Each structure stands twice: as structure tokens, then as C-alpha cells.
UniProtKB/TrEMBL annotation:
This is ApaG domain-containing protein. Pfam families: DUF525. It comes from Leeuwenhoekiella aequorea. Gene3D superfamilies: ApaG domain. InterPro entries: ApaG_domain, ApaG_sf. GO terms for biological process: error-free translesion synthesis. Residues 3-128 form the ApaG domain.
Amino acid sequence: MVEQITKGIRVSVDTHFEGSFMKNNETYYAYGYQISITNNSRDTVQLLSRSWFIFDALNNPERVVGEGVIGKKPVLKTGETHTYSSGCLLKSPFGSMRGYYIMINFATSEQFKVEIPSFNLNAIHTLN
């Protein structure tokens, strides 16, 4: 698991390899990840949007941008945690992801960026 704290918001990421499959004579590797976002600040915040950078070992970068996470824009009071699961497909057995959330602080109406730590995606059978 990897963690990072930005302005009192802790983002923890746990990953797992789901398996591989063939489609149109190409191999794809499926990865899942679970993210927990904990508000350790003094103010109530809301997650507005996300921006992901996905990299594979074949140098095929992808950027994913959108509102909320898994169709939600969670509001987190002090001490609350929002956890969700998602996944991605790569064309190589190794890769990584990193990104950030845009959040708003309800006390100040300030929008701010919360970093998502870089994490590796590894197909278990390819590791020594």
C-alpha cells in the first residue's frame, strides 16, 4: 500500500492483479485498485474531479479526466473516509498510475489539488 497526505487529506492505494486475457490477438492485463480518502483536516471537503496518468511498460501513456469517482462526489467531514474500488487495463504486464483530485474546502470555498501517490501495477506471474 502507498499513501500520501496533501493539505490534511490522506490518499491510500492498494493494488492487485486481476488476470490477463486475449482480445483481437492482443494480450491485456487487468489491474484493480482500492483507494481510501481520509479527511484529517479541520474542515469539511468535497471531491469534485479526478485526473489520472496511466503508464505501461510499452510507453503507451493514457490520461483520464472526469467528475467525481465512480459516479460520486463524496463530502468528507473531519475524520471521515471514502473508499472505492476501480481498475484499468494495460497492454503490458507492468505499469504505474498517478494523479490528483480537485477538492473544495467548504469553510473557505477554496479549490485545491490532492495528490494521488504513484503506484505500480505488476502482473504477479512476471515477478521473480
